[in-house]
Amino acid sequence: MVLITGTEVHHIKNVLRLKPGDGLKLFDGTGFEYDAVIISVSAKDVAVEIQRKLKAAFQPGPQIIVAQAFLKEKKMDDLVRKLCELGVAQWIPFFSQRSIARPDAQRLTVRSQRWQRIATEAVKQCRRIDTPRIEDALSFHEVLDFSNSCDLKLVFWENETSRLTGEYASEENLPKKIMVMLGPEGGFADQEISMVRDCGFICAGLGPRILRAETATITAVALVQYLFGDMGQKNLDKGLGLE
Fold first, then answer.
1. How far is Cα 164 from Cα 223, in angstroms, rounded to an integer?
2. First to last CA, the chain
3. Nearest-angstrom CA–CA distance, 196 and 198
4. How far apart (Å, rounded) are the C-alpha atoms in residues 220 and 230?
5. How far apart are CA 183 and CA 190, in angstroms?
6. pLDDT confidence band for 90 (50 / 70 / 90)
7. Which residue segments constitute the domains of the chain, with CATH numbers given?
8. At 1, is the pLDDT very low, low, confident or very high (cuts 50, 70, 90)?
9. Is a pLDDT exceeding 50 seen at residue 122?
10. SS3 for 27-55, per residue?
11. pLDDT-above-90 percentage for the chain
12. Integer Cα distance of 115 and 128 in angstroms
């Protein structure tokens, strides 16, 4: 028997309105899912019996890491939710030269915890079996150091006219780890773009229109997933679609 506690009790009891005898699918965030049956429901916990443990089938595709310069207000919260739905594996907030929002250490801890909760909720909604990793906030230079482990590094910039294409990968040689780097509301400074180019990043634009920072991030990740990941045409042909 397994006891479910915390906020999940409210979700099971009051949102899903499940009762003893109802089936439930659980996941542990590491790639396993479980078929379970509810035994009892109380105000503090839900007791379930595990029927079987399954290794979830992963769609082939690269690990996408999003390095996002800090944005104002709650834009970062919304991005965590949307990027989780898009299948991002890792989220790295960082401070760039034009970042307006610069929370202190205590505030960063609170925000990081909130982002983790948001990611967990989004995982349930979009039926992912793995939870994105939320990293601590980094400096611009630390992000460049972090990128050294990636085999494809992309930076999107509003002043770049070149478009991203699939020429950087083939079916036989798909990138396994991709970093996607995006700037704050005011964009990257020219000096920063020069530095990321020197670090091996490919610079690309997102068309003739100037997008809001949060729109640009979602658009960029969807494009990367289409060109290199599990939203590509071959997967769409197999019936993967929208909910």
1. 8
2. 33
3. 5
4. 14
5. 12
6. very high
7. 2-55 (2.40.240.20), 63-235 (3.40.1280.10)
8. confident
9. yes
10. ECCECEEEEEEEEEECCCCEEEEEEEEEE
11. 49
12. 16
The DSSP secondary structure of 142-158, one letter per residue, reads: HHHHHGGG-SEEEEE-T
Q: Which residue has the tokens 């990128």?
A: 147
Q: How far apart are CA 62 and CA 107, in angstroms?
A: 32
**Do 33 and 129 meet the contact criterion of CB atoms below 8 Å apart?**
yes
65 sits in which H/E element: strand 63-69
Torsions phi, psi for 227 (to 5 deg): -75, -35
| Whole-number Å distance between alpha carbons of 142 and 48 | 44
**How sure is the predictor about 63, in pLDDT bands with cuts at 50, 70 and 90?**
very high
pLDDT, tens digit, for every residue of 136-193?
999 999 999 999 999 999 999 999 999 888 777 666 677 889 999 999 999 999 999 9
SS3 category, 80: helix
68 closest CA partner among 59, 80, 55, 56 = 80
The distance of Cα 77 from the centroid of its chain, to the nearest Å, equals 11
